[in-house]
């Protein structure tokens, strides 16, 4: 299916150098809808929703955000490190949302896995079901995310 | 049959071209706002060509409101009071305005407000001191694995007057896949007494458009432009004791304050807590320690929060807050200057207030 003008504009904002250095799509040539649909199908197989994952991500980021050095152990098994840097990023969907530049690294010590996400990732997953394109710096593979979050 | 199809195509093309011409003409008429006047603080009036944003209209007249996002409506730094002529509040402004500002109705994002009619605004008078400067890079120092000190020598005859603690915004140049310039804010780390050059301390941010440019593309001899000075985080001229607290690149404004006090001289009791995670995050330690011999009552205290035994670190560890008690002798007569992450600022502010330092004497620059 062809992308609408609005989707094309969103895609343009996701390109390298527009909002972030490497953009949101990596080397993924699929349409935004195709990327989102594929990830939604995988989520269904995993028995999770995008909203559930985003809420869980926010739970960890929020716990570490206001700590002195951004590091905290949560629920015994999860080491959370959030680093905040100066400035904010807008959502590429351009609905007015802006997000602090904060990167959270979550390590699950039960299964020794870790994932890294930004504040913007949480929003993109919760509100747009967008996990970023394959090969993007902040692409989150749903299966890896589920494995680490739970 | 083919001729009929070709005729239809030609007919449709003519309609399309005609519509495009009509739209171009209409656009010219509809978006021609002519000359508009901007009344600033009821004291100064400038005339601009209507249709552009308030932010760019002002900068065209060498009046620079802060803007860290290059006019994309994301940083909120360009807020100003629009008394009249700004039109209704736009959806693109609301995310960066507080509930109080939205309720007041006159605080607007100057990058989003279009100048279409005469407009009245109020801005701090200090804004008139902000100018655009052109400079050449004369030195790049690696302070740590991810932090550099960059020295900018202003072009011949240019001088910048700033207060220790204030910041400037530098404009990037297009590089690699980045086709547009962005502006980013960084605190000045050099002393105000040197006014023909300045130094910034810039930490690399993964995926950051500006910091990648600075760390990987900027080199000695490059020409750049910047605007400033901005900000109300500056050293107050009092005799109160001082607690400085910084983390990461937050060392920059504190360095400027200390170097300024070194020039003007001071007897103030001062303690500087620098919070870092590991020894590799420390920098300028010898320089800061050396100031203990310069000032009559100054102590520099680096504190590591994630030091391990193999670091062989013999200094203070953990959080900064437990060490405040020994540094505060008269809380009511103590000022605090903080620069770092929101989490650090929040935890430190809470602790300083618990120690009796008045809230209005705690000045901070949170990485907003």
Write up this protein.
The complex is a heterodimer of chains A (150) and B (368). Chain A has five helices and four strands; from the N terminus they run αααββββαα. Chain A has a four-stranded antiparallel beta sheet. With 150 residues, chain A is of the alpha+beta class. The mean pLDDT of chain A is 91. Chain A has one domain (5-149). In chain B, 25% of the residues lie in helices and 29% in strands. Chain B folds into three domains: 35-127, Beta-grasp domain (Ubiquitin-like (UB roll), Roll); 130-230, Beta Barrel (Elongation Factor Tu (Ef-tu), domain 3); 241-366, Rossmann fold (3-Layer(aba) Sandwich), CATH 3.40.50.80. In chain B, 40% of the residues are buried. The mean pLDDT of chain B is 90. Chain B is an alpha/beta fold. Chain B has eight helices and 17 strands. The chains are: A alpha+beta (150), B alpha/beta (368). The interface between A and B is large, with 32 and 43 residues.
Radius of gyration of chain A: 15 Å
User: What assembly state would you assign to the polypeptide chains in this entry?
Assistant: heterodimer
Distance between the amino and carboxyl termini of chain B: 67 Å
The arrangement of helices and strands of chain A along the chain is HHHEEEEHH
The helix count of chain A comes to 5
Q: What class, by secondary structure content of chain B?
A: alpha/beta
SS elements, strand count of chain B: 17
Which CATH class of the largest domain in chain B applies here?
Alpha Beta
**In percent, how helical is the residue content of chain B?**
25-40%
- Using the CA coordinates, give the radius of gyration of chain B: 25 Å
Biggest sheet strand line-up of chain A: 1-2-3-4
How is the main sheet of chain B built?
Answer: 6 strands, antiparallel
Distance between the termini of chain A: 35 Å
- What do the pLDDT scores of chain B average to? 90
- Structural class by sheet pairing and helices of chain A: alpha+beta
Question: Which percent band covers the strand fraction of chain B?
Answer: 25-35%
DSSP helix count of chain B?
8
The domain count of chain B comes to 3
The global form of chain A is globular
Unreliable segments of chain A (pLDDT under 50, ≥5 consecutive)?
A: none
Shape of chain B: elongated
